[in-house]
Specification:
This protein is mainly α and 130 residues long. Helices cover 83% and strands 0% of the residues. The protein has 5 helices and no strands. Helix 2 packs antiparallel against helix 4 (77-110). The protein starts with a helix and ends with a helix.
């Protein structure tokens, strides 16, 4: 119930801001013709990559309760849930780093900038390990 109230209040806030913008700036219009379709494709292709990366990580850590329950019984699941929840937080952090670093690494690799790629790898691997 509380989550629904928060979502409705956020929607109301967005609508209120949209009405204020329409009233103060009537010449502002958003149209699909205004978008740079090449940039939209790049954004969606990057978003698809991040979605697949996140979905794979979630599948690997969310199905373990099913496997443990099937092989060891339902009573064994709580013992593994605590460690699993901690690992999920760590994986979310690493996935967030990978979502930013992977396209940048691809760009550097295709550009033949191996020195910058090596520097970026060392920097972000240190951040992920801390």
């Amino acid at each position: 119930m509380t989550l629904a109230a928060v979502q409705v209040s956020c929607l109301a806030s967005i609508l209120r801001h949209w009405l204020l913008i329409r009233r103060h700036y009537p010449g502002v219009r958003i149209s699909l013709a205004d978008f740079d379709m090449a940039m939209v494709r790049r954004i969606f292709s990057f978003s698809l990559y991040v979605l697949l990366l996140t979905a794979g990580a979630r599948l690997s850590f969310e199905t373990d309760a099913l496997v443990i329950g099937a092989l060891m019984g339902v009573g064994a699941i709580p013992f593994y849930v605590v460690a699993n929840s901690l690992i999920v937080y760590v994986m979310d952090f690493v996935i967030a780093i990978a979502a930013v670093v992977s396209p940048m690494a691809t760009t550097l690799n295709t550009g033949g900038q191996s020195d910058q790629l090596r520097e970026m790898f060392l920097k972000w691997s240190k951040v992920a390990c801390h």
